[in-house]
Amino acid sequence: MAAAPPPPLSDTSDPVAEADAILQEAERAGVLLRATGGVAVALLSPSARRPPLRRGYQDIDFFGLSRDAEDLGAFFGGLGYAPEEEFNVLHGQRRLFFRAPHGRWEADVFLDRIEMCHQLDMRDRLAGHARTLSPADLLLSKLQVMDTNEKDLQDALALLADHDFGENEGAISLERIDELCLNDWGWWRTATLVGGRVREAAERLSRGADAEVADTLAVAGRRLDTLLAHLDEAPKSRRWKMRARIGERKRWYETPEDIEHEEQGA
């Protein structure tokens, strides 16, 4: 007789609660796993759980290390999550997919780095933060998306509303943002361009909002202005300056098609 599947970890209508439960199980099991994406923002930022920055979630994104891929597969399997076998065989050194037992969402596990319009290498940054990626890395993951949607804008505003700049736990590290954006013109250009869209979203959502919402968005807007001014004025590396000479005459970011082509050629 086949073993019965494990019971749901949480209220199966709430992916944020499910992510929290999975992270608790991972900690008990000694599995290095961190939440990323919109669900991580909701776990970290109270403003993401209130209108107008509250939104829905269709899947749960996590981050782990490629060296732990086999352990991660066993861990999710033990929770009743079914692997997307073909995808995991083809892409298992970069990313893993698992279907929830009830089929309402998937767990998407990035390994080592997030590869979207730019690369966000996380191999040395998981151990220092509990449950989620750091606020700076979550913000960078949103500011690197050239094809920005409303959910990306909401998540970025929630992070900025609830986390000031600093190097302590729970703050947005300017040192981390500088590491990427002041050494790589492409990262800088995308982050500042998308940052402008986030600023416009803050102004748009503030129109007609009640005082509490307006204050929250005003805080996010001021912090964003601080960040954009810093990225404009801070000294840049020689590499940054050399790439800046070419500017937008050459595309500075990757597309999903580029990444797919690279994976097929790997």
Tell me what the structure shows.
With 266 residues, this protein is an alpha+beta fold. The termini are far apart. It has helices spanning 15-29, 37-44, 69-78, 85-91, 135-143, 150-162, 174-181, 185-206, 211-233, 238-246, 256-265; strands spanning 34-36, 60-64, 82-83, 95-99, 106-111, 113-115, 119-121. The protein contains 11 helices and 7 strands. Helix 6 packs across helix 9 (211-233). The relative contact order is 0.11. The longest helix has 23 residues, at 211-233.
Number of helices: 11
Instruction: Assign a percent range to the helix content.
Output: 40-55%
Low-confidence blocks of residues? 1-5
**Termini Cα gap:** 41 Å
Number-wise, the strands total: 7
Element-level helix/strand string: HEHEHEHEEEEHHHHHHH
Global outline: globular
Strand order, largest beta sheet: 1-2-5-4-3
Please identify the structural class as seen in this structure.
alpha+beta
Largest sheet: 5 strands, mixed
Work out the radius of gyration: 19 Å
Overall pLDDT confidence: 92
Query: In percent, how much strand structure appears in the residues?
Result: 5-15%
How would you briefly describe this protein structure?
The protein is built from eleven helices and seven strands.
